[in-house]
Amino acid sequence: MSLDGAFLHCIAEEMLDKKLIGARVDKIHQPSRDEIIITLRTFGSAEKILISAESMSARVCLTSQAPENPQQPPMFCMLMRKTLGGGRLTGISQDGLERIINFDFECTNEIGDLCECRIAAEIMGKYSNIILLMKKDGVWRVVDSIKRVTDDVSSVRRVLPNVVYELPPREERLCLTDCDLSQLGEILSGYGSQRLAKALMNIFEGISPIFARECAYSSARDTEALVSDLTQDRLEKLVFFLKKSRGHIERFDGCTMVSDKSGKPKDFCFVPVEQYGAEMTETRFESPSQLVDRFFGDRATADRVKQRSGDLLKTVMNIYERISRKLEVQKQELRDCAEKEKIRLMGDILSANLWRAEKGMSEIVCEDYINGGETAIKLDVRLTPAQNAQKLYAEYKKLDTAEKMLTKFISQGEKELSYIDSVFDAASRVGSGPGSESAIYEIKQELISSGYIRSAKTERSAKAPKAAPPLQFRSSDGFTILVGRNNLQNDKLTLRTALPEDMWLHTQNIPGSHVIIRADGANIPDSTIVEAAQLAATCSKGRNGTKIPVDYTLARYVKKPNGAKPGMVIFVNNKTILVDPSEELFEKLRTVN
After folding, report:
1. Residue 98 lies in a domain
2. CA proximity to 571, closest of 486, 483, 499, 506
3. Is residue 564 classed exposed, middle or buried when 0-12, 13-18 and 19+ CB atoms within 10 A define those classes?
């Protein structure tokens, strides 16, 4: 669903009604690659304008969300701060119902002179862009844009620094807010048997498919109605509906979001939607920005977290594959060591038959006094028989030593794989809510402290985000349950936060979170242990399975061996319970934290 020009007009009018003209630019953030949030300070209050050029969720609206920002602001964000910081908003404009909203600012440049700047928010699906402009010699020139458009990308219009700004190519269509609707029947006659909804989208600018279908439904009670089916009576109904819709745009009185029966938002419009009947549910909003924020917010947040965690997951997977390849080579070398006893036996047989061997022989056939029969032993013609025997013993010793070392290395490698598996599980479970940025940061710091990756200079100098607390739940019996978000938090939760009488839980031989039930001096009932075990299974790599084994014991019986990786502990006096993961229980018991 793309935001249409008519709905953008409603949002622009809402911003004007909020009396944002004259407000000062207080803060500018870039939470993700294609998204900007500008905080404007008015008398006694602040409003945040969100501008997104993400192809699937491009939008402009007022927002109440507070997404976490990256540790180091992107270059475009720093340029925006430098250019617009402290500036005053002087205008919000839209050309007809074109999907472009301009924000004009009066700013001060580096030498203290006043200058005119503009943000052109082009909301056009995959061609969406956020362009920073400055007026020079009466002409708007591009300072920079969140998406640069070179000649290789478009041969029609370039968007590059210092280039004169040109509007996107625009088709000649009617503007619903100021056109003469009395000529609509004559205009429609040229569209023959085309679908009425499609014809209306070709005639009017800035209207979305859902509104065009609603026009067809209001006139013919059929969203698939053809232009040829349009009688005079239906044409009058269509003109009446369009005039009524014009009133909705000019005097906004609410907007509608439609959702499927599962509650998932599907579409929205600035007029009431009747075309779906009982198949969809309608939700009315008094604020167009609130609707857009609700409709796109969850998806945009999830995309932002996915973007930030994608590189981390790729890094962890590369580490896992590197260790796996190394482990496979070591296991092959260990299998080769199985020949050591045969080599030692040949050394013993050769030593017993030195009297038969002579220097210069390439092979000797001797009696195998252990297994019976005869065995052929290859000899080095350059060595004496005794030296050949010593060579066999040296090769045996080398393989014996290699076998012991490889056994140790393989054990360490398998533990490393298990640890990296737990890191990957924690990274894949990073949610989209509060604390996601700090969770990603902590996992990255864990890998840095363990020596798996290096920290960049920008990361070393950047301010670390505030650490997120463990996930908190309340059982049906009223007991507090804490769940670690990653290995570092697991260690802190188990070894520092938990008291000796608290209950500790973890999935058996499956990477996952440490879970603590706070006893608070009371006996923990079995029902709470079952619920905590289900949470442990849900917050583990086995969350998509069934009958997941979960170990539980008192926190006093859980210890961390010296030199163990983060999140790795040993425990005794434990019991095991089989449970099914439950996302429903996860949401039901979770408290806000």
Report:
1. yes
2. 506
3. middle
CATH of the domain at 74: 2.30.310.10
pLDDT tens column, 46-70? 999 999 998 888 999 999 877 778 8
Residue 463 has pLDDT above 60, yes or no: no
DSSP H or E run through 345: helix 340-352
User: Domain boundary at 468, 501, 519, which?
Assistant: 468
Q: Do both 460 and 330 map to the same domain?
A: yes
Same domain, 463 and 484: no
Q: Quick one: 217 exposed, middle or buried, by C-beta within 10 A (0-12, 13-18, 19+)?
A: buried
CA gap 277, 275 in Å, rounded: 6
Average pLDDT value for the chain:
88
Domain range for residue 555? Answer: 471-589
b (16+ CB within 10 A) / e for 223-257: bebbbeebeeebeebbeebbeebbebbeebeebbb
What CATH number is given to the structural domain containing 407? 1.10.287
* Tens of pLDDT, residues 133-160: 999 999 999 999 999 999 888 878 999 9
pTM of the model: 0.60
Q: What is the pLDDT of residues 203-230, one digit of tens each?
A: 999 999 999 999 999 999 999 999 988 8
Q: In this structure, what token pair is assigned to residue 210?
A: 């859902």
168 is a domain residue: no
CB-based contacts of 372: which residues, under 8 Å, 6+ apart?
none
Domain termination residue (choose one: 286, 302, 334): 286
